[in-house]
Design a protein that fits this description.
Blueprint: E1 5-9, H1 14-26, E2 31-36, E3 56-60, H2 66-75, E4 80-83, H3 90-95, H4 97-117, E5 122-128, H5 154-173, E6 177-182, E7 184-186, H6 195-204, E8 209-212, E9 218-223, H7 224-237, E10 243-246, E11 251-253, H8 254-265, E12 272-275, H9 290-296, H10 304-317, H11 319-323
Parallel strand pairs: 1-2, 1-4, 2-3, 4-5, 5-6, 6-10, 7-9, 8-12
Antiparallel strand pairs: 9-11
Helix pairs in contact: 1-7, 2-4, 4-5, 6-8
Length: about 325
């Protein structure tokens, strides 16, 4: 990889911490700066394996602080920024929509300004499949990179707004940007507000697994390490100004996921409990990943059954981690 120092924002979170460890292991000459505000879903212990390395530096701070971001980029000779920092939980977005706009829209814009001032080589932004809206359960349609944005929740809308601003920095200022839209991630170290860790921990404690009334709504799933591999390829070969979908084509509804987790743990199906749908609960997302496969040669490698079993095993063997959350 051609970069000297990468600034990763939100690097103490689930996907960000996996990405840092992935890059750290694969590229022994690259230095990594991790800027994270350490809000509720962040955990520095996710990176304890590299915390003392001279190639890694953690800085507590907000991407919305221009002077801090500018100083970090300038003093550390950062030539690549990968922006994971975001408020990302749709349930919280219903109660705190302003927080999502502040971080996901304004914070991203301020980070872009710091990157522009220092003329970095690449600004990559982690977006979401949810900017495209929802699909019917029966349709054969997939979201392509050219699909129109139709966000339906404050979280989705804040991510869509950030995408527009990022592209404007490419067209107006020539900032070398790329954007990726990924489907739902799963794996170890995911904060227990997302469906898979929630179900795993509930099952381990013999508590009811909360299933939304619209239990047939589908999501597309990817293991976090397959996502990291895709990001690696985008940073290496992705075309500036372009966006890339990252999906597997593997769809599961919440009832299927609950059943599989209960089966793997040997728990009864009676642990499932139907709860009311949340407002703006989208029916289905499905990405076409033809572009990243054709242009960058990416493909998912971790099978769902293997990845889910490994994830369950990790939570079962690391109770200290999730009990401290």
């Amino acid at each position: 990889m051609q970069y000297r120092t990468i600034l990763v924002t939100g690097g103490c979170g689930f996907i960000g911490s996996h990405f840092i460890k992935y890059i750290f292991k694969k590229y022994p000459k690259i230095k990594i700066i991790n800027l994270d505000l350490l809000t509720y879903a962040a955990n520095q212990n996710n990176l304890e394996i590299i915390n003392k390395s001279a190639r890694y530096k953690f800085i507590k701070g907000d991407i919305g602080d221009f002077s801090l971001a500018n100083r970090i980029i300038k003093s550390n000779l950062v030539d690549c920024v990968v922006n994971f920092a975001a408020e990302s939980d749709n349930n919280r977005a219903i109660n705190f929509p302003v927080d999502f706009v502040k971080t996901n829209v304004l914070g991203t814009t301020i980070l872009l300004e710091a990157a522009r001032k220092n003329k970095i080589k690449r600004f990559h932004h982690i977006s979401t499949c949810e900017v495209f809206g929802q699909l019917s359960l029966k349709t054969k349609e997939e979201f392509s990179e050219d699909s129109p944005f139709k966000p339906r929740t404050p979280y989705n809308a804040s991510k869509a707004a950030a995408d527009h601003i990022i592209k404007s920095y490419y067209y107006t200022f020539g900032l070398p940007v790329t954007i990726s839209h990924c489907c739902n991630n799963y794996g170890s170290h995911q904060f227990p507000e997302k469906v898979i860790p929630v179900f795993i921990l509930k099952a381990l404690k013999n508590e009811p697994l909360p299933i939304f009334k619209s239990s047939k709504n589908k999501r597309e799933w990817i293991h976090v390490l397959d996502h990291c591999h895709a990001l690696d390829l985008i940073l290496q070969k992705g075309k500036l100004g372009e966006q890339y979908n990252i999906g597997t084509g593997l769809e599961k509804n919440v009832e299927e996921i609950a059943n599989e987790i209960l089966d793997i743990l040997g728990k009864p199906k009676g642990l499932r409990k139907i709860i009311p749908d949340r407002p703006g609960h989208d029916t289905r997302y499905l990405l076409s990943s033809a572009k990243i496969k054709k242009e960058l040669g990416w493909k998912p490698e971790i099978k769902w059954t293997d990845g889910l079993r490994d994830t369950i095993k990790w939570y079962k063997n690391n109770q200290t981690w999730w009990q401290s959350q």
